[in-house]
Amino acid sequence: MLNLLTNLVDVTVLYATPLILAAMGGLFSERAGVVNIALEGFMTIGAFSAAIFTIFTGSAWIGLLSAVVVGILFSLPHAIASINWRADQVVSGVAINFLALGIAVYLVKRMYNGSAQTPVVPVKLEQISIPILNRIPVLGPSLFEAYPTTYLAIAIVIIGAVILYKTPFGIHVRAAGIHPAALETAGVSIYRVRYIAVMISGALAALGGAGLSIAVGSEFNQTTVAGQGFIALAALIFGKWRPGGLLLAATFFGFSVGLSLIGQIIKLTNYVPSEVLSMIPYVFTILALAGFVGRAESPASLGKPYEKGSR
Q: Is residue 55 domain-resident?
């Protein structure tokens, strides 16, 4: 029983990590007023880039860094469409999602003779163990013997909270999502703030995707992300656009993945179809949004394009 509980916590942390990273990216974008349905696409291109660069360089760290860079570059079309062209931000995000998956799968097939997946990466990110603490029953092996992305995710939540609530840039981001005209009156460029926020979004979501291909998994294919970006967006909404809230929400959704996997381990598939167990995370997501989204108050100017000089 103790081993089963330890496994459940381990899987929860493992799958919550990419959700936390992607949701933190979405937090900056949406706090600045730009809807980010494109988290799925950013995670996809990040997972693809990390796997490809790890295969070619033999370094998982280079793969991780490349995912961040590509994620930033890939966020620019969404920023241009949403900020400069004042296009519908939801439509732009959906287009980015299709584009990311299409480009990634096309390039994989071109590079690997029609195969729909990359070869197994030669080296994955190695887990970092913290002595003594990793011996704590149940929690120790999961929290203190984890992949670098887990420690990064926790650090980014803390740093992100400090930036948003304790720095001038954070004030500008929040103001851009609440009352952009007032911010422009203060002499701050709304476009610059929103561009930076969307680029941060691309970087962090791609970092989460990278973890799926070179930490949680060991290759990239078209099902590597499989809706994790949308679950991260749900965690952001469920967490009421707050760092602490999305951390708890992402952990909750990671727990739902753990339940589905543990159910398969203890042979529940003898009684319940495996497809039903695989549905658990998505069912939890729908129930959470249906029950709480109405109580979540989004930034006042979220999804509203801003034109310079408007009041």
A: yes
Q: Does residue 206 lie in a domain region?
A: yes
Q: How many domains does the chain contain in total?
A: 1
pTM: 0.95
Using only C-alpha atoms, the chain has a radius of gyration, in whole angstroms, of 19
Judge whether 303 lies within some domain: no
Domain of 95 in residue numbering reads as: 2-122+138-295
The CATH number of whichever domain residue 35 belongs to comes to 1.10.3470
Tens of pLDDT, residue by residue, the chain (311 residues): 667 788 889 999 999 999 999 999 999 999 999 999 999 999 999 999 999 999 999 999 999 999 999 999 999 999 999 999 999 999 999 999 999 999 999 999 999 999 989 999 999 999 999 998 888 888 888 889 999 999 999 999 999 999 999 999 999 999 999 999 999 999 999 999 999 999 999 999 999 999 999 999 999 999 999 899 999 999 999 999 999 999 999 999 999 988 887 766 666 656 677 777 788 888 888 887 777 655 668 899 999 998 876 55
**Inside any domain, residue 132:** no
Q: What is the rounded CA–CA span in Å between residue 159 and residue 156? A: 5
